[in-house]
Amino acid sequence: MNSLLIVGTGLIGASTGLALKAAGFSGRITGFDLSAAELLIAHESGAIDEVVSTREAATEAARRSDVVLLAVPVFAILDWMTILAPVLKPGQLVTDTGSTKVQIADVARRLFPGVAGPRFLPGHPMAGKESGGAAIAEAGLYQGAVWIFTPVDAESTAEETAWREWMSAIGTKVMDLEPARHDQLLAWVSHLPQMVSTALSALLEDTFGDDPDLRAIGGRALREMTRLGSSPYSMWRDVAMTNTAPLANSLLALEQRLQHLREHLRTPELREEFQRANKFREPR
């Protein structure tokens, strides 16, 4: 892999560029973002070497790149897949960082079939922050994180192998999952915690507003439980709309569990629930 185009130079895209360079990647990294400010920050930070400022220029840059990384929300990933599939050549690789994978994998099978043409490797790094933007990107973002792939073809090309190796080089543990399995698990380990934090933060805002007493006594528990509540809707709209059923199922299960707790606040069931909860973080 000698050249990379990063579409979306926010936190994830810019951090990937920085991480690759820190790991020794010496090829050319081009960046595109709808935000001129994000592009400028990513370029000034050294995450990307070259800027393209229009979709047409980005498409042309994709033609010249060994790998294209789509580090944008899911619906934008699907749009770019449609744009790139007809113009790329055999041997070129497109991959992504989308938080849901079933729809992306389905489209990849249709638009990037077989090994004779350009390839698509769905991916998802399990790293990030509660807010986005190139200004908070860092080369060490992926250290110790898992980078999940949900391949749509059993055969791997040289570029796919190279990309996997670079993801290991930047500090991640590479892991493969079926797309549906990915979305089911992510509904529980990522999407549900976000919705819980959003609901709690919105409830506190509606109930207490600017109450200084609440903010004065709110400690670590409050900070940790509401941290994800700072995430913007723009980051989560596509997740909710492309993983609706698994996420709704996890929310329903939590609602039922909370009802169980509420009904047993004064019974031994509460102790048993704490005992079950304590087991979750024990070494397995």
UniProtKB/TrEMBL annotation:
Highest taxon of the lineage: Bacteria
Pfam family, one: PDH_N
Gene Ontology BP annotations: tyrosine biosynthetic process
Gene3D superfamilies: 6-phosphogluconate dehydrogenase C-terminal like domain, NAD(P)-binding Rossmann-like Domain
Alphabetized InterPro entries for the sequence: 6-PGluconate_DH-like_C_sf, NAD(P)-bd_dom_sf, PDH_C, PDH_N, Preph/Arog_dehydrog, Prephen_DH
UniProt keyword Cell division, yes or no: no
Keyword list, A-Z: Oxidoreductase
Domain named Prephenate/arogenate dehydrogenase: residues: 2-284
One annotated GO molecular function: NAD+ binding
Coiled coil (UniProt feature): none
Protein name per Swiss-Prot or TrEMBL: Prephenate dehydrogenase
Source organism: Terriglobus albidus
Upper lineage: Bacteria, Pseudomonadati, Acidobacteriota, Terriglobia, Terriglobales
